[in-house]
Design a protein that fits this description.
The chain is α+β, with helices and mostly antiparallel strands and 578 residues long. The protein is 37% helix and 16% strand. The protein contains 18 helices and 14 strands. The protein has helices at 26-38, 59-73, 79-82, 89-102, 123-131, 153-166, 213-227, 265-283, 297-307, 311-314, 317-324, 339-342, 359-369, 374-390, 435-447, 454-462, 465-473, 543-565, and strands spanning 116-120, 140-147, 172-175, 183-186, 203-207, 239-245, 252-259, 348-354, 394-401, 422-429, 479-486, 499-500, 519-526, 529-537. Helix 1 crosses helix 4 (89-102), helix 5 crosses helix 16 and helix 9 (297-307) crosses helix 16.
Length: 578
Amino acid sequence: MTAPVRPETAGAAPGAAPAALSVPSEEEIHSRLVGWLAEAVLAPDTAPASPLRDLGVDSLDLIRTARRIEAAFGVRVQLRELFAPELTTARLAGLVAERAALRGDGSAAAPPGTAHGPVVLTPSQEQAWEEQTGERGHWNQAMLFTTRPGIDPELFAEAVRRLVAGHASLRLAVEERPARRPRQQTWALATDGPPGAALGAVLDTVDVSELADADLSAAVTLRCAVEQRSLDPHAGRVARFVRFDAGPSRSGRLLIVVHQLAVDMVSWSVLLADLEEVYTALEEGRRDVWPAEGTSYPEWAQALAAHARTPEAEEQAQWWTEVARTRAALPPDRPVADPRAVNTAATAATHREEFPAELTPRLHAAARAHRAHPGDLVLHALGEVLAERLGESAVRVDVLRHGREESVGSTHLARTTGWFTTTVPVRLDLTPGTPAERLARTVGHLAALPGGGVGQGALARHGRPGIAAVLRAAPPSDVSFDYEGGDADALPLGTLLPDVAPEPVGDITAPHWTRPHPVEVIATTEDGTLRVEWWYSTALHEEATVRALAARHRAVLTALLHALTGCDAPGAPETPTR
């Protein structure tokens, strides 16, 4: 994937192409779009002229498409435009061609490396900050990659400097104020000067060129464990790049550790693509290339807080109030005085269910037939299981969503890094009916989420006192759900970082880290196989309980898919109709 970059051209908007570039034809744009979307389409038998929704293109695919459009044609398409229900590839090509002819959206961008703030934390940041009562520095996301031999150290340092300058979230600092709400700002990074200037504690290089392969792996593993404890959001140290230099003829390693407040999974694709693009450009002698994001993360935080006081957002309050009334408790097997105090990383365990490979095509077929995302069906089956266990006709589950909703202000977020993931309470109505009828209620509810769900957190954290008090009074669900997609979400590895390294990155959270939910259900589809992981606390639930829930979820989802796709399922239990 090619990352959009900012040419140093007078008057150029971030990501815009130089004025000298010719305007591509609509036919050329359409051809490129078809190729990109073909990589993401889950329904290859669907006519290409169908709306993107019918092609099975999900929200994360559209975020990647927006980035590619900006990179290739120098124009922006807002995510809300891409989410339009009747948008086809041909209509999108016409829109891109029209904007390419105008070349730019007229917005002015701050120079890379500019300081922002102080501004409020986003709702997700603030809620998580409150949940973590201990030391908050050891709470990260991290990845370790192999590097190609012979990396130029000065060019690499310059590439990292430009990456940090171009993405404000990598320069976040959190200010904690007694008796007042915490806030965030970003520190400035010089965009001129010698390579590596002003990087400070962001980049380190470790010489492992004299080590044998086994000793190299051991040294990398040890250093990774140490680096997990090196971040400090109070001091503005939220990102660390550690390059292990194995010499000119051997593959090295690159560890990237980013504090959870500053990154989400979508951000990794942006960062890796930008690092590859900038380093390659510098290696070729092109020094006019800088990463470019649209709305910076602090600007997004400010826009979201302002959005919470708008009539549009306040109209959503009744919706979220009704959802909050739905039961969301999963009684623990081991009652304790303070469940949150024992629900920590140290007590976490996991159980994984792997589904038969032949089930995945049925999952996609059923999703297409019901104009849903595959994750919607997995979530619906989870709701069936919880409602059955609790004896309820409706249950509330906290669903993790990408959170990059451009319905808030004039924002451009496809290129922005930061923690956008938002936890949205979802009400699953499992009143009696056929499997298709009950699924339709779930799909309809998810499709009707106001503003994609970001308004709930905004109202609860930044809304008027009366609205905020009601929404914050509702306890979170005891169960969360996250559908992380599959092979289409593969990282954009290239020549600089050709692969994920085999060594472990270390513990990304401290043992005392407070888990946000007693039970976390995470579904992925890799190599055509659906896998569902159940994370739980051994201080709250017995392993047998979680295994039983997972087995029942597997049975209910299997029966649902057989019912929806018209296939026989010998021996499969029926989905409860209650």
